[in-house]
Specification:
It contains 10 helices and 23 strands. The chain is α+β, with helices and mostly antiparallel strands. The strands form 5 sheets. Strands 5, 6, 7, 14, 15, 16, 17, 18 and 19 form a 9-stranded mixed β-sheet that branches. It binds flavin-adenine dinucleotide.
Length: 434
């Protein structure tokens, strides 16, 4: 054991990004993952949407800084030779506006932070996306609500367009890219091994115990276990020292073909539509993926054991999401069978992630990503590496939280906003919007 040895529990996009930034600071990292490959956990089923429409200034700054990593992906990774890189598709993002003064808070944040945006009239929205219906359909309802089709049909006020936003075409490949960069930098991976215990003594972490019975010694352990984050925090005995905790939430996203008369793959825009309670995005193969915007009427299935949950698309949720989408895109061809993916979000109490130390010396966490932090992997890796390095050099993160400055935007993020000890973030949407 060396004071620079780090075990990272998880080789998803977050664990791999943390490893890369730590390696570049001279740490010796080992990512342990129960899966046979990096990025096979919840990352694999991510919609990988990159948008900036968060409810707090810190959330927006992190996402705006974060998207530059995708824009500069190959140079950030610094890999040599022929590499199949994940691609950033910069198709832009729309937030549909119900009333003329809708989302003024968001626009004020965009102005003060410097996020480029355009305000689109209803007509501009329909000119650009002629397959869209231009009416309001609020409030969102479930398809089993007898009033599902009874909408007042008033005109939408328009939309907010951020041209820099988009999506990453292959989240698993992006994680494999990170893994290769970590290995190039000297970091290592131990796959097909499950962490079953956290070694500790005298108030300090000492490593991890594996299902094989092996013990790995390290003075630093990082919890990047995605939807299993609460399991690892309980193993470490740190949950009681957290005012914000995490839980696993089951979520479905569904896939549909684009209407024949329009290529959503080439000309579509990622759209957040709180009017009807969904978000949707272009997908390779001229398809559209639709997910829930977490309206209050949708069920939340909290999962006690993240190893056991129903991975089948449910009839009710599939119908709810695709019929909601058909309100915005009436010509969408709806297939008889529901196709899509089911996976877990790692949700924090206020849907804001926790990027922090813990009460156990040397034990850190990057958890509670709440269905919306794939986009931030690059910047979260940098933030966590800086936070860990500062703590290991004697800084007390609880008393003197790191002011993290992004390398691309020079924006400063107050990491107290991501503390495990924070008060519930009252500005949060308490949904995947963050
Ligand atoms: C359906 C869906 C859609 C999403 N859409 C978006 C989106 O559009 N935009 C966006 O920004 N974000 C989105 N997200 C969220 C984003 O995908 C996650 O925030 C991100 O992928 C989390 O990465 P992670 O590395 O923390 O978790 P994971 O990828 O789940 O990685 C955690 C790893 O830890 C391993 N592990 C767990 N316990 C143990 C153990 N005991 N021992 C060893 N290994 C262990 C797991 O095997 C897993 O590989 C979405 C998520 C889902 C599920």
């Amino acid at each position: 054991m060396n004071s620079k040895d780090v075990v990272i529990v998880g080789a998803g996009v977050i664990g791999c990004a943390i490893a890369l930034h730590l390696c570049r600071k001279g740490y010796r990292t080992l990512n342990v993952d129960r899966n046979p490959a990096a990025g096979f956990g919840s990352t694999a089923n991510s919609c990988a949407v990159v948008r900036f429409s968060y409810s707090t200034a810190n959330g927006i700054k992190l996402a705006f800084e974060g998207h530059h990593y995708w824009k500069h992906w190959a140079s950030f990774l610094g890999l040599e030779g022929a590499v199949d890189y994940a691609k950033y598709v910069q198709c832009g993002h729309l937030v549909v506006k119900t009333s003329a003064d809708d989302r003024q808070d968001l626009l004020n944040h965009y102005r003060s932070i410097g996020v480029p945006f355009e305000e689109w009239s209803r007509q501009k929205l329909l000119d650009r996306l002629p397959i869209y219906d231009g009416d309001r359909h609020a409030p969102p309802k479930r398809v089993d609500d007898p009033a599902f089709w009874e909408d007042r049909k008033e005109p939408l006020a328009g939309a907010i367009f951020t041209p820099d936003a988009g999506y990453v075409n292959d989240p698993q490949l992006a994680t494999q890219n990170l893994k290769r960069a970590v290995e190039t930098g000297g970091g290592r991976f131990l796959l097909k091994r499950t962490v079953t215990g956290i070694r500790q003594s005298d108030g300090r972490v000492r490593g991890v115990i594996l299902d094989s019975g092996e013990e790995l010694r390290s003075g630093i352990v990082v919890n990047a276990a995605g939807p299993h984050s609460f399991v690892i925090n309980r193993m470490a005995g740190v949950e009681d020292g957290m005012s914000i905790k995490t839980r696993a939430l089951r979520r479905e996203v569904h896939h549909l073909p684009s209407p024949e008369e329009f290529s959503f793959q080439d000309d579509g825009i990622v759209t957040s539509d709180s009017n009807i309670g969904i978000y949707f995005k272009p997908e390779p193969g001229n398809r559209i993926t639709v997910g829930s915007g977490d309206p209050a009427c949708d069920d939340n299935t909290w999962i006690e054991n993240p190893d056991e949950f129903d991975r089948n698309v449910s009839e009710l949720q599939w119908q709810t999401q695709v019929f909601r989408l058909s309100k915005r895109i009436p010509s969408i061809p709806i297939t008889n069978t529901g196709t899509g993916v089911v996976d877990l979000y790692d949700v924090a109490d206020d849907w804001t992630p926790i990027y922090d130390k813990s009460d156990l010396g040397g034990f850190y966490m990057a958890v509670g990503t709440s269905g919306h932090q794939f986009k931030n992997a690059g910047v979260v890796g940098a933030l966590m590496a800086e936070l860990i390095d500062a703590c290991e050099s004697g800084n007390d993160q609880d008393k003197n939280p790191l002011e993290f400055t992004g390398r691309y935007t020079n924006l400063t993020v107050d990491t107290a906003a991501f503390s495990r000890l924070r008060a519930l973030n009252a500005e949060s949407s308490f949904s995947v919007r963050g």
